[in-house]
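Re: Re: token formats

Sure, here are both.
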Amino acid sequence: MNALRTLIISPNWIGDAVMAQPLLQLLRAAHPERPIDVLAPPGVSSVWKQVAEVDEVLETPFRHGALQLRQRWKFARLLRKRGYADAYVLPNTIKYALIPWLAGIRKRVGYKGESRYGMINVMHHDELPPRPMVPFYAALARPPVTVQGPGLRAALPRPRLMATPAQIAAVQARHAIDPARPLVAMAPGAEFGGAKRWPARHFAGLAQAVLARDPSTQIALLGSPKDQEACAEVAAALQAGANAGAAVFNLAGATSLPEAIALIARAAAVVANDSGLLHIASALNRPVLALYGPTDPDHAPPFSDLAASISLRLDCAPCKQRECPLGHQDCMVKLTPELAWQKLQPMLAQG
């Protein structure tokens, strides 16, 4: 390959990958002639395939958490042949910084992380308290500075994904979703832990309000196989009583990530915990209702034109714990469906 390329080493989480996308917008603007490759784990690679600035996605062959030095050396030799001018290492671990160093990429940009002196030769340092995720990653496009001012943050592009009409049509056909009827997507899951999950009964209560407003609305419950139990609880509550005939699709574990992206792109609104699907919806510029409990709503907010974040901002929050250390999960339990409906209803009215 003759043209010098840029390598992005992706974060390991879907939401973080989405929030790193503005970095690519800045890099493409600075070097429009330079192809951008993204090295990503299999669970995240599908996100990058929906990013306009990405020329090629390379999947990592490494096991999670393992050093696998011999395998990284072999992979680095393959990367050396591709001709990279620079590499942006977004994970903070040494093992990911090893790859561009072993590949002989001259400019290696990233945060200090695990004291990665030498492996990272354009080293950034985070602020205290930490910056929100979008400016945290986007700052790597510029020379390291001590303080990122508010003017710089305000000028940043928003995360942006795309889904084609063909992708949307295919997933609707596969799951028998009527393209002529409105669709509201709900994502009751969260990979980080149970503390981030709004109770399934609350999702059901909010969905009932959606159906009372417009009984023709279709409800799509999205998530991974780990979310099947929560989604099944929501579906069971909706398919009983007055909503027995409602079009409810429990798709947890039944869609690939590209299919979930296409369904979200089609949705009239998306309701989600602080999760990867929330940030996908934001990057697709869908109306988003974001539910925050143990995490900080200011650290990773949605960026849609129509977006609302709800947090009770209790004294014990944000604790940032996987499970409620006090055992009551009040930050999510006391966030009622009625409060959520007050935020969601105006979005649906504008759709």
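Second one below.
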Amino acid sequence: MTIASPSARDTPYDLGPEQVARFARDGFVHLSGVLDPQVVRDYEPEITEKVIELNTMHLPMEERSTYNKAFLQVGNLWRHSEQVRELVFSSRLARIAAELLGVDGVRLYHDQALYKEPGGGITPWHADQYYWPLSSDRCCTIWLPLQETPLEMGPLSFAAESHHFEFGRDLPISDESEAQLQKALAEQEFAVVTEPFALGDASYHLGWTFHHAGGNVAADPRRVMTVIYIDADMVVAEPVNENQESDLAASFPGLRPGDLAASPLNPVLYRP
């Protein structure tokens, strides 16, 4: 069932040159009104239903690791729901990614729903690209909250300009990454930007931009949908850690280092 008109998902967003420049400078940008609030409201119930159906984390909060306290994480929802596929395949969202990255087109790496439950812990400082076997930095994530997200819900915090900082790129999300990166980023005097999100807002951040999120002290879950976009001409890189080996098998089935990153799971989402 289609729950939002194609124009709501595919009409180009008015992205200004100053926003593109800010993304290049800071490694992230928070955009207002990326989607109409009603469009987000329309898709939220289906995404939430699929998260509940497909989630495999059922331990009580006190028995979970720091990583698992941070959020419930369910990937490739587009393969389980035609409604979610509509949103993930939005050319409006993908075009923003291509314009921010300065590439001719983007393809899908994968999607992820990230739900931080009430009482959920911090998301430790990390850079996403630690997990991805990609040959360049032309990749980014849209972070699209499915409700208004005040500070008490734990929106993302970005270390501005940290995508040029190479320390900590070998650290997975952990207590260690939180401690080491918090210290290192403070020593480098990176400005940490934390803002609430209105319904319909979204942020885009580069794969090497360090980010973090506070715990959710609100009464409701912080429901977020993400899509990772990669340059349509991206090449698979040789994995440098076990997590990249796992991602190579899961996200690029049948591909090997040196191949175009174009398995059946990685369709082009936007190319003019």
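The helical segments are 6-10, 17-26, 37-54, 66-70, 82-88, 91-101, 175-187, 242-251. The chain has one domain: 18-251.
- S.
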